[in-house]
């Protein structure tokens, strides 16, 4: 177990943001830029660095039950975000 392990609930937050960032790479941002690397901003947001993330991610991926729990929470959160976005779009129309 890494000394500086990111807690499981925070890993859900970090991985959710990373998933959104990966999907945003092909979308233009406000400055009309594509392929922006948002990872440093996410690490900064959570007060972590890439090494701490990699060590924590490795720890959780090597424990299938823990990682499945994290992935389930991420999936639930992303579905909720999608539903909220779709509801917002209906209001705008």
Question: What's the short version?
Answer:
With 93 residues, the protein is mainly alpha-helical. It has helices at residues 8-24, 39-46, 50-61, 64-92. The N and C termini lie far apart (50 Å).
Key words describing this protein structure:
93 residues, mainly alpha, globular
Explain how this protein is built.
By secondary structure, the chain is mostly helical. It contains 4 helices and no strands. α1 runs antiparallel to α2 (39-46) and α1 (8-24) crosses α4 (64-92). The termini are far apart. The mean pLDDT is 87.
Give me the Rg, rounded.
15 Å
* Beta strands, count: 0
The main pleated sheet reads as: none
What's the overall geometry? globular
What is the topology?
Blueprint: H1 8-24, H2 39-46, H3 50-61, H4 64-92
Helix pairs in contact: 1-2, 1-4
């Amino acid at each position: 177990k890494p000394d500086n392990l990111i807690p499981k609930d925070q890993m859900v937050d970090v991985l959710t943001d990373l998933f959104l960032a990966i999907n945003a790479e092909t979308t233009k941002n406000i400055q009309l830029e594509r392929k922006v690397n948002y990872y440093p901003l996410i690490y900064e947001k959570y007060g972590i660095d890439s090494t701490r993330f990699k060590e924590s991610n490795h720890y959780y991926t090597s424990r299938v039950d823990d990682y499945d729990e994290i992935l389930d929470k991420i999936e639930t959160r992303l579905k909720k975000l999608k539903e909220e976005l779709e509801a917002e779009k209906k209001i705008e129309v």
